[in-house]
Amino acid sequence: MATKISNQKTATLHFYLSQDGLAEVQAKVTTVTLTKPNPCRNMRQSPYSYHQEHQKTLSSPPAPQMPKIRAATLADYPAIQAIHEECRSAAEWLPASGRLTSSFAQASIGEDVFVAIGEDKQLIGFVSVWMAEPFIHHLYIKPSHQRFGIGRALLIALQQWLPLPWQLKCLIKNTAALDFYLSQGWIAVGTGEGEDGIFITLQLERG
């Protein structure tokens, strides 16, 4: 049986499964570059002068500084629950039942939780792990702070508490997460199906 997973941005994964289980997994990451028209074309002014005059319009907002990573305390749990609900309620890759409000405390019993604290001393992300495996169960970043390297910062800091290798399960439909983990060196080592759908087991051998 062959399953193809694709993403418009970066990753195309091909999973080849035999009847006995996972026979081979191949991951190929390609980058698609979109060509935009030159805004200076048909203009009398030079490209340099155009850039100077429109610098404020074209510049991206500055990325936030890297967060402080520490172990969670009881006082952090209201903010953790709020991020958990915000992320899952907006997750189109989850079935409708999975987007309903759920208790993070109940879903992470027995796990260690580490949090990312932003410049304004607000909690902006967290990761929860089962130390004995070691297994990463949850990794959520506040939507307003996604794509700024917060998830990567959490995983790098986690190495001081949790020795490699690690494993986690990622739903096939969660293509953004798959892209992220593959870009960080994770490899697919298995597959299965749970109440939220088909997932891939990923493993990180070294940081």
- Tell me what portion of residues adopts beta-strand conformation: 25-35%
Could you give the count of β-strands? Answer: 10
Helix content: 10-25%
- The DSSP helix count reads 6
The strand line-up of the biggest sheet is: 4-5-6-7-8-10-9
Main pleated-sheet profile: 7 strands, mixed
State Rg. 20 Å
**How far apart are the termini?**
32 Å
Helix/sheet category: alpha+beta
Rounded mean pLDDT is 77
Low-confidence spans: 1-59
Description:
- This protein has 207 residues and is α+β, with helices and mostly antiparallel strands.
- Helix content is 22%, strand content 33%.
- The chain is built from 6 helices and 10 strands.
- The strands form 2 sheets. It has a 7-stranded mixed beta sheet with strand order 4-5-6-7-8-10-9.
- The protein is globular.
- Residues 1-59 have low confidence and may be disordered.
Break the fold down into its secondary structure elements and pairings.
Layout lengths: L1 E5 L4 E8 L2 E9 L17 H7 L1 H4 L9 E4 L5 H13 L14 H4 L4 E6 L5 E8 L4 E7 L8 H9 L7 E6 L3 H9 L3 E8 L2 E8 L3
Outline:
With 207 residues, the chain is α+β, with helices and mostly antiparallel strands. Helices cover 22% and strands 33% of the residues.
What attributes does this structure have?
33% strand; 7-stranded mixed beta sheet; 3-stranded antiparallel beta sheet; disordered N terminus; 207 residues; alpha+beta
